[in-house]
Amino acid sequence: xxxxxxxxxxxxxxxxxxxxxxxxxxxxxxxxxxxxxxxxxxxxxxxxxxxxxxxxxxxxxxxxxxxxxxxxxxxxxxxxxxxxxxxxxxxxxxxxxxxxxxxxxxxxxxxxxxxxxxxxxxxxxxxxxxxxxxxxxxxxxxxxxxxxxxxxxxxxxxxxxxxxxxxxxxxxxxxxxxxxxxxxxxxxxxxxxxxxx
Length: 197
Description:
Layout: E1 9-11, H1 21-30, H2 42-48, H3 51-63, H4 77-87, E2 91-96, H5 100-109, E3 122-125, H6 128-138, E4 142-145, H7 148-153, E5 159-163, E6 175-177, H8 180-187, H9 189-195
Parallel strand pairs: 1-2, 1-4, 2-3, 4-5, 5-6
Helix pairs in contact: 1-3, 4-8, 4-9
């Protein structure tokens, strides 16, 4: 029997589990800006919007009582979480959010809380460096984020994946995935699950 791999997964939330594409486009339009879907990933979005408008959009996106609950799940999110959970591998949410309450409400609305995430495996931090502190503490082996500056900080994580849904981020330093289906195939989670006792 093949030796079972020991995975400890870490997931970012925004732009990885949660798809903010359409809400970002709608909010940008309110400020007189036309965005294409491929301009909405955080890595691109943060570079091309004026700082004041970017901050206003992010405030509405993350904290507004209605808008903050409008973003859907990224396609395949529940499938990948179900596979990881069935496989028996530990998994954690490490999100950089100043206010965790709207985030938890959104996770509840999308039926991820408490089925997959809860107070025991979810952590909300302030700075990119804080993600590394928590990832090291949890001994994360595989972390998925949509921003290279976050992955750059995760010195303790051996396997770092850049979630680049539209294939627009120019960085060759990390393993790139465009969907959860691709990640699932690459990790061969079903086979690993079958091999586990």
